[in-house]
Prior knowledge:
The chain has helices at residues 13-22, 48-55, 58-79, 88-112, 118-137, 145-163, 168-177, 188-218, 221-262. By secondary structure, it is mainly α. It has one domain. The model is unreliable at 1-10, 34-43 and 45-57 (pLDDT under 50).
Amino acid sequence: MTGSEPRHAAHESVEERLAEEIVEELDLHPVPETPATKDDEEEPLPSMSEQIAEQLGGVRGLIESSLPVFAFVILNVLLGDAVLGLEKRQALLWAIIGSVGTALAIGGVRLARKQPVRHAVNGLLGIAIGAYLAWRTGDAKNFYLPGILLTFGQAAALLLSVVFRKPLIGYAWGIMANKGHQDWFGNARLFRTFQWLTLLWVVSLCIRAGIQYYLWALGEANAIGVVRILVSWPLYAATFAFTAWAIHRVTSAQRRDAETATA
């Protein structure tokens, strides 16, 4: 979702994979309006967590998507002024090679094992864009700039959806847990829940992107990588888990009310 949160295929896609692990046991199926008769029963839609598991990579996806960023940070630190003292652009070149090489290796291993490579390709695309900007400008901090700007863009889109009373978190729930139906507009309690949850995502995204942008403005390239690994992704996971819990709480209560009313 719109990271959750709206999803993007570059630097932040790893966060969605971590979130899948956290909400694995939650059931966010739609609230039934009336008891289904035998004739009306349909093939049950996989739960939200099952659909996320199919789309995302779980713990393995987290590790695989983290490695290229980790390689960039480590190589830039070890080869730069902090340790070996290579010339800045030379250290940056090796950091880029290490990062892109790691992403390619992950994709190669998946191909060799005949496993899906979609996430590896997405990760490589984000790494390649960041690497190009870093090399073109000669500044390692620009490796992280696409992800920062994209996160701010997601926050803006979410905020606009609340202003126009079309909360994107509601649409994400409709797609993933309500068989694609967007009939939650007629459910006042769900609508209010989606409105404030979407605002919660705006705050979460702005915090994550804001910290990274502040470090980018200071030129602290390595600190941005550390923040992304140790702060940004866990914050995403926590926001996602709370969102799943909040929706589950409302849908479960309304399901119980519907069962009581028809008893």
